[in-house]
Amino acid sequence: NVFFPFHSISSAIIHLFQRKPLKENELGILQEHVRFLINSEAGGLVQEYYKDQLLRKGMIILREKIKNEQGVELLKQLGETWDYFFKEILPVLQAILYPLTSSLSKDETVRSLTLLAFRNIVVLKVSIKEALESVNKCDYPPNISQMLLILQSIQDNVFLSENQFKLEKLVARVICPYLGQRGFYDGSPDPIIKVKLKPSPFNIPNVIISDNDKTPSKSHIRLEHKFVH
After folding, report:
1. Are strands 178-179 and 221-228 parallel, antiparallel or unpaired?
2. CA 6 to CA 10: how far, in whole Å?
3. Which domains does the chain have, with CATH numbers?
């Protein structure tokens, strides 16, 4: 029966986002539940359930407390939320779900999945852009700069995603000068020197069949390669 392990893990993770720490000896029990689920018929669902259900619920809990804030107060509250999340929640999530590591693809980790959710559901869903515009750069809280740089270091599965570009614009406001994926920034959200993104050239083989024989055979087929830009 996989219901009890799922319920136990779900409750513990949601409690973390509600700032309720794990009970004594609870971590080891939760890790055993994760191992049990991975080896059960529901093993393939653990990652998706964490990403699509638990992370979403948890991040909404964090966002609800700050979603109506503006300006300096938003930056202050967001910075405090980030500090607690990064220092108290993220390490425990990584510990609970450590047995899941072997089931993830090489480009994914519990840490990256969780940080991307914080970026997409918390940071990019509040009025941080307007807050940064309304405050002098010298008054930006240090933890906001730390948050943006750490989040910008996490790559999406989708190359150059829109959310990654949105975050890059925020980083460019805080870090000056800044070299991002779209170019070189000098304090504004738009690069003063833009990078021209072009696909890398690759070889496509062309099969050329001799006019003397309509049926291709090894003796009449030759391969040519041309570069496509």
Report:
1. unpaired
2. 6
3. 2-154 (1.20.1310)
